[in-house]
Amino acid sequence: MRTILLLMFIFCGQLSAEQKTLSVAVNIGPPWAFFQEGTGVTGIDVEIIRHIFKEMGYHTEFHLLGYSRLIKEFNEGKYDVASPAAFASEQGHLTDKYLPFHDVAVSLDTHQHNINDIADLKGKKVIAYQFASSVLGEAFAKVVKDANYLEVAERELQLTLLVNDRTDVVIGERRLLSYILQQHYPNHKLTIHPIFTIQAYGAIVKDPLLQQQFNKELARLKASGMYEQILSQWP
Q1: Hey, what domains does the chain have and what are their CATH numbers?
Q2: Which label site among 163, 169, 192, 197 has the fewest CB atoms less than 10 Å from its CB?
Q3: pLDDT in tens, 214-228
């Protein structure tokens, strides 16, 4: 009888541990979320989420996804959390914002393009990320509507096309583009044109109670200085 009770206790404990593991979908793109040899899945977004849920007593299992797939599979109920959440969903609840994304235009320094405003993109070959024409506002959508414009999901390909003079400008997140250029094309220098405002995003959480707890722990993370410490690891 004791053996049976012990086995039941162990089994129930295993179930409890499994229930406390959250499945988290993150949009793949360094330095926000990426796989690193010897470390595993890491990045600014990953470490913030991991730290918050660890303080709440949860384990986290991260899945690196393209953004279209992230939205689709979260809406299908496959994940407990998805980030960043630049979308609303009946399947989840938006957290407070904590990801300072700064979309910029970048060009090769050697070409000395004069781009001080969205209107200056007119007449140039432009490549951006998926859904950029809807995310970046009406002024941007209007400029690129009749331009030589392409949306490409693979960030490395975007910069490959840039350094090979197949496009004049790439639109994307500043930290992300700078990180990829440093990793793949360290001998090239970018000119950064800050023609868009910084947009902050949070995550989306399936369980409303979990979302409320997340927000409270996020506030504590910021107050402790740990939030800025994580951001500073990938400037």
Answers
A1: 2-100+200-232 (3.40.190.10), 103-193 (3.40.190.10)
A2: 197
A3: 999 999 999 999 999
